[in-house]
């Protein structure tokens, strides 16, 4: 049974549509991350599930119950907000116990339950403190404990980690994941942070302009994005304009803005029937590119090389260019490379090979089946 079912969910504010025709089934015990840029409709969707916003159209079911028209206090949900919303006139323990008090739970029982939740989030030592004296990470733990104390069927988290610094945010992501696995409850987590979504989620739902574009496992969404927006949003990539010159058994041959004719292939050997002249956008993520220095006598080698068929039957593409700048990023080094009239970037660790410098001539290589191709309308066509 689906724990949460959204069917044709829509929210309009006057002439503005914030959420449009969102339908998804969130399974019992699943952690779904709604991921998207600011204004994509993800928080509005969460607030409708919580009962804090009323849908203009569509329905919401939790378990077998249609809760579309139920007020928030009659739903089996709890929400953790971005700004924590702790009561400054109460102690930490009283904040955590507040929801239980509203439910009519006895004083002794709610204190025991509140202490149990504080233990779970490693905040028991702060039970009698004023919440205004706590750090951001501590406040977030208290807010989480307060939501968990009422034993909700569904926990809703609206960008709860966005106010924390990088290291603490990463620590809290791991803690949230462990809490979810321990409780086996349904979590819906809203974030604009791709790393956070990939760390936490069983599945990711990508939203943009009020629409839920794609829902899938993290690896599926990253490796097989439905369209160019998702590919560009989920990390860094090189977008390269291309035009189909031929479709062969080896793949689709394209002419590119890199002044090179390259080949795009699919790992399963399928090749779409694309007409000559069809415009495409190729996506080459920096992690698929290998970068190597080239000998001086090959530096004037027209700047490019056509795709070649490797010994294993795969297709290997290569272009040559010149390093424009080098950025040291700790575990990796990022190189910006001028190729023809374009610029590309690649990353590598330099542990096994000599470091490259600005001005060096280099060769970029990649496998044809590591490339994604998108049509003019943004939809993915390959692989």
From TrEMBL:
<dbReference type="GO" id="GO:0016887">
    <property type="term" value="F:ATP hydrolysis activity"/>
</dbReference>
<dbReference type="InterPro" id="IPR013611">
    <property type="entry name" value="Transp-assoc_OB_typ2"/>
</dbReference>
<dbReference type="GO" id="GO:0043190">
    <property type="term" value="C:ATP-binding cassette (ABC) transporter complex"/>
</dbReference>
<dbReference type="GO" id="GO:1901238">
    <property type="term" value="F:ABC-type tungstate transporter activity"/>
</dbReference>
<keyword id="KW-0067">ATP-binding</keyword>
<feature type="domain" description="ABC transporter">
    <location>
        <begin position="4"/>
        <end position="234"/>
    </location>
</feature>
<dbReference type="InterPro" id="IPR003593">
    <property type="entry name" value="AAA+_ATPase"/>
</dbReference>
<dbReference type="Pfam" id="PF00005">
    <property type="entry name" value="ABC_tran"/>
</dbReference>
<keyword id="KW-0813">Transport</keyword>
<comment type="similarity">
    <text>Belongs to the ABC transporter superfamily. Sulfate/tungstate importer (TC 3.A.1.6) family.</text>
</comment>
<keyword id="KW-0547">Nucleotide-binding</keyword>
<comment type="function">
    <text>Part of the ABC transporter complex WtpABC involved in molybdate/tungstate import. Responsible for energy coupling to the transport system.</text>
</comment>
<dbReference type="InterPro" id="IPR008995">
    <property type="entry name" value="Mo/tungstate-bd_C_term_dom"/>
</dbReference>
<dbReference type="InterPro" id="IPR027417">
    <property type="entry name" value="P-loop_NTPase"/>
</dbReference>
<dbReference type="InterPro" id="IPR050093">
    <property type="entry name" value="ABC_SmlMolc_Importer"/>
</dbReference>
<comment type="subunit">
    <text>The complex is composed of two ATP-binding proteins (WtpC), two transmembrane proteins (WtpB) and a solute-binding protein (WtpA).</text>
</comment>
<dbReference type="InterPro" id="IPR017871">
    <property type="entry name" value="ABC_transporter-like_CS"/>
</dbReference>
<dbReference type="GO" id="GO:0005524">
    <property type="term" value="F:ATP binding"/>
</dbReference>
<keyword id="KW-0500">Molybdenum</keyword>
<dbReference type="InterPro" id="IPR003439">
    <property type="entry name" value="ABC_transporter-like_ATP-bd"/>
</dbReference>
<dbReference type="Pfam" id="PF08402">
    <property type="entry name" value="TOBE_2"/>
</dbReference>
<protein>
    <recommendedName>
        <fullName>Molybdate/tungstate import ATP-binding protein WtpC</fullName>
        <ecNumber>7.3.2.6</ecNumber>
    </recommendedName>
</protein>
